[in-house]
Amino acid sequence: MTHLTLDQKSIIKIRKSAKNIASVVDDFVQIHSTTSIERAVLRLYGVDGVDLSGVPLPNKLVDILQTKGKLESGASYHFAASMLESKRDAKTTAELIDQGKISFGESSSFSVEQILKQEQVLTNFAINTLDNTRKRKLDKQKQFPLPEAPWKYLIVATGNIYEDRVQADAAVRSGADVIAVIRSTAQSLLDYVPYGATKEGFGGTFATQENFKIMRQALDKSMQTHGRYVSLVNYSSGLCMAEIAASAAIEDLDMLLNDSMYGILFRDINMQRTFIDQYFSRLICARANIIINTGEDNYLTTADAIEGAHTVTASQLINEAMGKVAMLTDEQMGLGHAFEIDPQVENGFLLELAHASLAKALFPNSPLKYMPPTKHKSTDVFYSHVLDAMFNLASITTKQGIHLAGILTEAIHTPFMQDRAKALNNINYIFNTAKNLGDEIEFKKGGLIEQRAGQVLKEVVAFLSDIENVGLMKAISQGKFANIKREIKAGKGLDGVFKKGPNYSNPIIEAIKNNRSCS
Amino acid sequence: MSEQMIKPYGDTFDDGQVQLSFTLPVEIGARATKAAIKYTESLNFKDVAVVHSSKLADNFTCFVVYAKGIPSLNYKNIEATEVESTQMDYYEINSLIKTKLNRQMVVVGATIGSDAHTVGIDAIMNMKGYNGDYGLERYPEIQAFNLGSQVTAEKLLAKSLEVKADAILVSQTVTQKDSHIRNFTEFVELLEAENIRDKFLLVAGGPRINNDLAIELGYNAGFGAGTTPNQVAAFIICKLLNI
User: What is the ipTM of this complex?
Assistant: First the structure.
């Protein structure tokens, strides 16, 4: 297959830098938790539902602990104590706590041993939930095989989950392998997960556990009609990374957008909050076998795709290193990049092949997430269709993993149903007609493509070593990524970050980290 | 006034040829094709040819249709405005601000409402600019504040007041069910409610915007797809200096 000769010493060096960068962040992450993580723990213990005014019970419970100054010990232990008191299931216990009928976060009449035992029962329930979704998905894939990569990834976004079902089935009929229900804009800034099925959204559909379930059922039906596995994607980003990961695991989602820096840079979410939340959300993904999709493509929407190419690779390496800390395997890391080189650049396609091949060479076992042109998409839909065709060709030639469909009208509106079908026809044609092109061609030694890949690699070495020296948090505050500066103590969600107290307990983390079986 | 009658041009004057593509919520088949023809005829087309139909999903069929438009239009009766400003480059604009305005020109920009796309506002404001033309941030004589996307109308106004903006750039890129019109309107209404509409030059931008629409919505100008930063900067400085 298309092979680049790269300097192996540089590759060893950048992996080492990335590992050190991730390790410094991890030292910080390990001694902190967040309100969102504690809510995710409660969700995995079985807490669900909302109060009469629509506030999710996980939020209400964590708020109680916060008000009482008991959050530093985490939600797990206190909730186990309340379960013993209520002698009911987790959901009912949460309702009783909310109604003030049983205590939460107070000293318990039960012994520490009893409470720890109950906590173990809850942890087993949580881990079994994660193990069961993994098993259910594998069973389905035995019956309906996973298609060959690149997987064709289509977004639906009507705002109405029931209408999304229709559009998703239409996309699967046209060849889509992966359906993402894009979220209502600004959901990432909500510090709670909305509840129930929703019919109205803004530029997307709210991510709720019920909506996950509705779409999963619809795709299971499409799977039977079309005889191949269809993956479901949502967004574990923003202020509720960990909770979305928990809900997604419960409802058998296959992929989640989950980047270590996206929220910080593009949504102005506090970086401490993001790094801590990201860790727990990735642990959940690792155990539930959810492929994460990282967001490097976004850098190139603000920075130039040629000048900023090395920041994409650097971020992929950082995402990978942090992913490994959180137990993700190579196969679970859909590292991102994008086809964003200005179409007016001479030989831009060759440079693009260099960038895409470099990503493939560095992460051969990861399902790389390749994003279509957006910045240079034209309102001339015919031109845009051709731009997407070149993107499709680059993707099949360099064997990318997850191929986000570029759509001819995306610079104008949320695509129509027919626009998606045209986009898929384009992909189907090119993926088929050039299927093994990448196996047949070699890049010229010392030619433009190989030189370009070597150049980017060289820039990555310098860039990562720079970040390693100042530390990632400081590097972000200096605007090293995407030309955007974010302060360590600024941004949304910092108020939900807390230092773990001496009695802090989150046995789910321990179980996943130690790969403990709970069946 | 003499007439200048026009019709769409395919390959011969006045053939009226138009290419359409649309989806009908019906199952593919002869009846669906007939429906597509009848529907196109009801839009005032003749010689309708459904050249392609494909099934998108159960009960959804997409068509490509060629047809001849029946009406002609007198072009003499059509009036439209373009943003009026002198063509100037980066250096001329900077020098004009420096010598005539005698202070930095302040511009605040944002994509408002739920639209998450910064591509339009970035093309005009980011250092790098668009299509080889430097963005406003690069102008030494312009103080440019790009607030990014999903900015509320209130926040955009607050920032504009805080930095005493001369002009506010409001961008809407991707729209769903005409949300861009609602967002543009909401911002003007906010300024009017606060009685400060005259404090700023208001510029609308995005692929669905043209100057007429922008003016109708209460803006001073509107710029569509393909606009370069110098066109926007030239408009603002000319308007400020009344030239």
Answer: 0.84
Distance CA A56, CA A47 (A): 9
Predicted TM-score (pTM) of the model is 0.87
Within 8 A of B173 by CB-CB distance, chain A residues are 411
Residue written as token pair 């009695």: A503
pLDDT tens per residue, chain A (519 residues)?
Answer: 567 899 999 999 999 999 999 999 999 999 999 999 999 999 999 999 999 999 999 999 999 999 999 999 999 999 999 999 999 999 999 999 999 999 999 988 999 999 999 999 999 999 999 999 999 999 999 999 999 999 999 999 889 999 999 999 999 999 999 999 999 877 888 999 999 999 988 778 999 999 999 999 999 999 999 999 999 999 999 999 999 999 999 999 999 999 999 999 888 899 999 999 999 999 999 999 999 999 999 888 778 899 999 999 999 999 999 999 999 999 999 999 999 999 999 999 999 999 999 999 999 999 999 999 998 888 899 999 999 999 999 999 999 999 999 999 988 888 899 999 999 999 999 999 999 999 999 999 999 999 999 999 999 999 999 999 999 999 999 988 877 788 999 989 999 999 999 999 999 999 999 988 876
Asked if B179 and A186 come within 8 Å (Cβ–Cβ), the reply is no
Count of beta carbons in the 10 Å neighbourhood of residue A357: 25
Q: Min CA distance, B131 vs chain A (Å)?
A: 9
Whose tokens are 């889509």? That residue is: A176
Interface mutation vs chain B, best among A167, A379, A429, most B CBs within 10 Å: A379
Domains of chain B: 5-75 (3.30.30.60), 90-241 (3.40.50.280)
Are the CB atoms for A99 and A490 separated by under 8 Å? no
Taking contacts as CB-CB distances below 8 angstroms, the residues of chain B near A156 are none
- A379 inside 8 A of chain B by CB: yes
* A61 contacts A51 by C-beta, under 8 angstroms: no
